[in-house]
Amino acid sequence: MSTPHPSPSGEVATPEPRVTRRGKRRAKRRRTHTVAKVLISTLVVLGLVTGLSVTYLYRHLNGNLAVMDIDDQLVGDRPDKVEVTGSQEPLNVLVMGSDTREGANNIDGLTGGGERSDTTLLLHFSADRQRAYGVSIPRDSMVDRPECRTEDGTTTPAASYQMWNVAYQLAGPACTIQQFEALTGIRLDHFVVVDFTGFQDMVDAVGGVEVCIPEDIDDRAHGMYLEAGTRKLEGIQALNYVRQRYALSGGSDIGRMKRQQAFIASMVNTVVSSNTLARPDRLLGFLEAATESLTLDEDLGNLWELAKLGYEFRGIGLDNIQFITIPNKVDPADPNRLVWKRQADVVWNRLKNDEPLTKRLQTDVISAANVPGTSSDDSSDDSGDDPSESPGDTASQGGGSGDSKGSGGNAPTASDEALAAAGLCT
After folding, report:
1. Are 90 and 84 in contact (CB under 8 A)?
2. From CA 328, how far away is CA 392, in angstroms rounded?
3. Which of 35, 38, 158, 378 is deepest in the core (most CB within 10 A)?
4. What is the pLDDT of residues 186-202, one digit of tens each?
5. Residue 231: beta bridge partners?
6. What is the distance between the alpha carbons of residues 105 and 143, in angstroms, rounded to a whole number?
7. Pairing outcome for strands 190-194 and 91-99
């Protein structure tokens, strides 16, 4: 493979990573368009329906999975895994999405060659299997990137003050993994890439996902028009809704991520509901779409391992599946970029040591049990955040860890101001 080179727009084309497929499918890496926070849904369902995996079904679904070996691309030392008490270990899974920005679905206006990291999310599963946190990382975050290696062995030097998503663009998942571990000190156990087309198929397989839209969305230039109200979205409408950045959220990537968090929380709720579990056609359709959509590391890259992991979390409550955004603020050097706040270190340290996040760090939570404005939302309380703060900002007030314990399902929900800024009902 040739060395990555700039496109006419100045972007760097992403090298194609090496992927193999289980079963009879050819070892071919699909071009991916990704919104990537669907892994929890997949794991829960796989665990719940292990009994349906007769030999044919198991082989078929297992053959859908793509496996990627990145060991030869990892450079230098990795963080040590922190030992915690208990019979099991916590698990940290980095979920990544990419987007080529090609074709008619270029809903958020980005252009240029190569693949970008559209979404990056850390999924932290507690050792007691009672909590799951999804921590979103804005792609516009300015960070220091470590040295990386492409699949063909070319080394990309370390660089300071780089956008988060450039790492994926330069050297794919391996570089993003190294960047994450270097900045957080968290040793990753697994990684997953989820493609955008598969996301659409998963939404369609469960009969659509319910969202609440506070105002009409009129972006007919991209084929998107949605009237205000609570409704189920399917197909291209669902894709456009979660990718939209300018007709909603005022161009804010933070607002787009919050909307994605709410959508995936609603999807988790839908997947584990009786409407899905009691419908074999929907259930198997979801499993088909999910396994077609996942590219995983070798240790996680088979259906049995996914099912075991899902089964371990069979008892987790929806209110303990929580999504937050890493605390951030506007970059003083560039109003179109973000930098992490000091409280980001508190979040990473607590997750590294498998400690529950405190209420002060959970001020913008969206949980699978309380999706804003939909029928699953059973709480009307907001967190009382200062409307002048951006999502994650209120985590800084009072110093971070404090004495308060993780609050599980009683964590404060995202404020009305944060939800409105994301184009969500309050």
Report:
1. yes
2. 6
3. 38
4. 999 999 988 776 778 88
5. 211
6. 29
7. parallel
Q: Could you tell me which residues come within 8 angstroms of residue 413 by beta carbon, excluding any fewer than 6 positions away?
A: 365, 366, 367, 370, 372, 379, 381, 382, 383
Report the alpha-carbon distance of residue 130 to residue 224 in Å, rounded.
39
Asked whether 310 and 44 are in contact (CB, 8 A), the reply is yes
Mean pLDDT of 66-77: 92
Q: Which helix (H) or strand (E) holds 60?
A: helix 55-64
Give percent of the chain with pLDDT exceeding 70: 67
At 236, the pLDDT band (50, 70, 90 cuts) reads: confident
Q: Is the pLDDT of residue 342 over 80?
A: yes
Q: Is the dihedral of CA 345, 350, 351, 357 positive or negative?
A: negative
- Helix (H, G, I), strand (E, B), or coil: what is residue 155? strand
Q: For the chain, state the CA radius of gyration.
A: 20
Task: Give the torsion sign (CA, 231, 426, 399, 161).
Answer: positive
Six-digit token pair at 402? 């404090």
Q: By CB neighbour count within 10 A (0-12 exposed, 13-18 middle, 19+ buried), where does 250 fall?
A: exposed
CB 290 within 8 A of CB 202: yes
Q: List the one residue out of 129, 83, 92 whose CA is nearest residue 308.
A: 129
For CA atoms 211, 217, 220, 222, the dihedral sign is: negative
More confident residue, 317 or 209: 209
Q: How far apart are CA 189 and CA 79, in angstroms?
A: 11
Contact 159, 144 (CB under 8 A): yes
> Is the sign of the CA dihedral 290, 365, 398, 144 positive or negative?
positive
Tokens, residue 352: 């590294």
- Tell me how long the chain is: 426
- Asked whether the beta carbons of 243 and 249 are under 8 A apart, the reply is no
